[in-house]
Structures are given as structure tokens and as C-alpha cells.
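Exam revision sheet. Question 4 asks you to relate a sequence to its structure. Input first:
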Amino acid sequence: MEAVAAQQGRRRGRWFVLALLTLSLSGLIAGIVELSTQKPDRSLVHIAGIEDAQEIFGGVRQDGDRLGSPDAPVSIEWFDDLQCSNCRAQFLSTIPTLVESYVRPGDLQIEYRHYSFSAATEELGFFGAEAAADQDYSWPYVYLFFRNQDEAERVGIDEDFLTSVAGAIPELDVPEFRDYLDSEGGAGGRIRERLAGYEKLGSELGIRAQPAAIVSGPNGTRTLQDSPALSQITAAIDALR
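Answer key, C-alpha cells:
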């Protein structure tokens, strides 16, 4: 009798262990299914072009919104709208070449002028670029913003997106960036004052609702409107220096 009872006990023990294993396996499978069917987190921002930005702008002097040496003989006032989807291709097809061929050798300086081509004169993207300019990283920020316009449309442009772009610039201090946005982005802050100045300047110069470049040098000034091509810009630089 004792032997039979022991054998039955061992059987019950095996069934108990088997049941536990079955439950554990079921839970594992359920967990795997849950993970595999979860939708992507739309709040996760993916910034493209980080290495390209470093290659284009690395080692080039930046002071606020100006790129290049202040002693460069030719200057460009570049009027553009970060949140203009039609402006992206023009910026990306001109600025990298201008930086490599003219700015880096010391022949050209470019100053960025935020100018809205829509009814909204104070677009949120401008605020992020100006906060980056406070640390002298305006141009990498502008470049990355243009490169990631599709991502901005996917997740929405808010302070978190602006911070994600800032975080893609290795040397930029992100907490300082956020502090500057908070302290200077409100009414009477330096960001709003600067943007109002750019808007007034563009209006006085008659800038139309497309990217424009005002090229100035020893031989005069040329105003290039309506998304000038790289060939138009380089021809003006060569003629005026």
C-alpha cells in the first residue's frame, strides 16, 4: 500500500509540474504575440542625416545665425521657411555645395533669415533654430529640420520634436536649449524679437513667398528670388567677389 501511494504521489507531482510548464509556456506565447502585434510608438522620433550634418558643417565657424568667417568678402542673406515643404529640395541642393566650395575656404558667409511663406509669421520650427543659434549651431539645426520634414509631419511639430532635432547635434547642450526656449520664446523674449526683425526685414526687401538669397560683395548686390538654383547663386558670388 505504501508503494502504491508513493507511486500515485509521484504521478500527481509529475502532472503538477507539467501543468505549471504548460501555463508558463502559454503565458510566454501570449507575451510574444502581444509584443509582435503592438503598434509602433508614434512618439519615437527618428532623426536622419546626423553624420551628413557633421560632415557639412564640422569645423566651419558659426556665430548665431551666421555661417562662415565674418571677414569673407561675399555675404548672403538667406531667407527661408523651415516648415515650407516645397523649400526642402532647394535648400538641400544648394547649401551643402555652397558650404564646401565657398564658405569653408573663407570666400563666403551666409546669414539665415527666418521668413514665413505662410500666414503664420512665427512658426515653431523657427523657435528651435533660434535656440540652437544661441549656442552657435543654427545651421546644423536648420539642415536637420529640413532633412526630417517627413518625420515632423508624422509625429507633429512640438517642443519634443524640436528637442529631438537638437539632441541630434552632438555638441549642443540640450538642457540649455530647452531653457532658452522656455525663457526667451515667450512674449518679449529674444527669440520673438529676432523673428519679428526678420519678418520686417523681409517685408521691406520685398521677399516673395519662396526662398531668396541677397548676395553682396565688393562689386555690388544681387537679389535672387523664387528659389534660386545653385548655378544662379554661384554665378552671383563669382561676379560680385
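Marking note for examiners. The first helix runs from residue 2 to 37.
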